[in-house]
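Notes from the 1:1 (GR / supervisor)

We went over the backlog. Supervisor wanted to see one worked example end to end before approving the batch request, so GR pasted a single chain during the call. The sequence is below; no edits were made to it. Supervisor asked that the structure be written out right there so they could see what the output format looks like.
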Amino acid sequence: MSKISNSWRMMKASATVLRMDPELLVFPLLSGIATILVTATFVVPFAVIGEGFGALEQMGENPGYLGYVVGFLYYLVLYTLIFFFNTALVGATMIRLDGGDPTVSDGLNIAFKKLTTILEYAAIAATVGMILRALEERAGFIGRIVIGLIGLSWTLATFLTVPVLVTKDVSAFDAVKESASLFKKTWGEQVAGNIGIGLVTFLLIVLMVLVAVPLFMLAAAINEVLLIPLVLTFIAGFIALILFTSALNGIYTAALYRFATTGNAGEQFDSDMMREAFRPKKRRW
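Structure output shown during the call:
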């Protein structure tokens, strides 16, 4: 509970950074648009040229070599774009934590300079993703749970890979190794922070649904035409929430990494709060 409480304070500090630099929201927005376009690029040809969406379902059940090739290419392109914009977000955040005033161009320039390493990291992530998928398709119920835990471990161990790529001139493999090493030092705060951000997002979505459903019912009872602006407003609010929490996660990651490596997360993050996050465990004899 102490770590969760401390992570909540770190989230509020991250929100302070976002208020200072609202342009950071551009990066998750571009990442979301890129995700939609890439997914459509891979899905539409099967739906239009092939045998419709049934071909996709069949490939999911029995992928074969073509399915694995297409799946790997999809992961590779998707991860490259996601990591690119994450790198831009973390890079711009680092400028703010260093006392600067970042712009969208600053973040994109940082990401372009790291493009080769980003491609390497995307290839590693795509390979791991395809291996886990192949194992999951051949495993039973218990096996799938184990593979799911392995996937979760991979996600947590690579949580700080992007900040490493931003701040150091290293290969993607070395960045993953350093992230895993830092994970051993910060694992409690990483997990608590992810749970905190995810929990806040979930609660806000639930609140939005609880407010929206009665309004939808009331609008439908009065005039169905009124549903259109309400639905559009709900969709806009949902997108804004996802962008907000995605930006917070990137800022949180940058601050966590900065303190873990330099002992100073920036003036927006209280030193006592950060020291609490990395307080060493007491040995029991």
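Supervisor's comment: Residues 2-277 form one domain.
Batch request approved.
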